[in-house]
Design goal:
217 residues, alpha/beta, Rossmann fold, 9 helices, 6 strands, globular, binds 1,6-di-O-phosphono-beta-D-glucopyranose, binds magnesium ion
Length: 217
């Protein structure tokens, strides 16, 4: 029987590389400057969503959602991004999560296409720094699609790979991302905590735990 799955679409932060910790640190620092305290529970809700959407979640958490103009919010988001970009600027291939390089190479050798559906405007830069440009077939520009949990970013990745959504698997570490994959009509693989990613078809603790054979149906 011919194998149905022909493409895998990966989220970036928290799946390919561990930038989620840096996003968290940068937001925590920014929030502290406007007297808002965020913890890891708040951070779970920031994963996978855009920069401005993340800021809105933080301001609401701190009860300050009506305290800033759009222009001031842009300054806050830009400041957070400055902290973040500075932190990731020294990334090298060593920052790939364990097992990712092997996984991507194995997928390539099986003729499976590889897409990236990251909400981050820094995804392209990270792909370069991590040295995986040659292994990736298509990267969605997140500025051209509505953010997760809308399915558009995964649908656009499938289109870019010239595949039907049903021929693709989506891999995500965020609740919003799993919701997006499901709405796109793809099989969803969660990376992280089963108790958090309750809607995923299957959850592995880390990318290195992914069992390709069970996914290639
Ligand atoms: P930026 P992913 C997402 O990336 C992050 O999970 C999320 O925390 C971040 O706010 C978002 O990218 C936007 O990132 O500010 O760099 O444009 O998980 O979708 O790869
Ligand atoms: Mg992510």
């Amino acid at each position: 029987m011919e194998q149905k799955i022909k493409g895998i679409i990966f989220d970036m932060d928290g799946v390919i590389t561990d930038t989620s910790e840096y996003h968290y640190t940068a937001w925590k620092l920014l929030a502290s400057k406007i007297d808002i305290y965020i913890d890891r529970d708040v951070n779970e809700n920031l994963k996978g969503i855009s920069r401005m959407a993340s800021l809105d979640v933080i301001l609401k958490h701190g009860g300050r959602e009506n305290d800033f103009s759009e222009a001031e919010k842009l300054v806050l988001a830009t400041t957070k991004n400055k902290y973040y970009v500075e932190m990731i600027s020294r990334f090298t291939p060593d920052n790939l999560l364990d097992g990712v390089e092997l996984l991507l190479k194995e997928l390539k050798s099986l003729g499976i296409k590889i897409g990236i559906a990251s909400a981050s405007k820094s995804a392209g830069k990270l792909i370069e720094l991590l040295g995986i440009t040659q292994l990736i077939d298509y990267v969605v520009d997140p500025t051209t699609v509505p953010g997760k949990p809308a399915p558009d970013i995964f649908l656009k990745a499938a289109e870019g790979l010239e595949l039907e959504p049903s021929q693709c698997i989506g891999v995500e570490d965020a609740r919003a991302g799993i919701e997006a994959i499901k709405k796109a009509g793809m099989y969803s693989v969660g990376i992280g905590d089963k108790a958090v990613l309750t809607e995923a078809n299957v959850v592995y603790k880390e990318p290195k735990d992914i069992k390709l054979k069970t996914l290639m149906f």
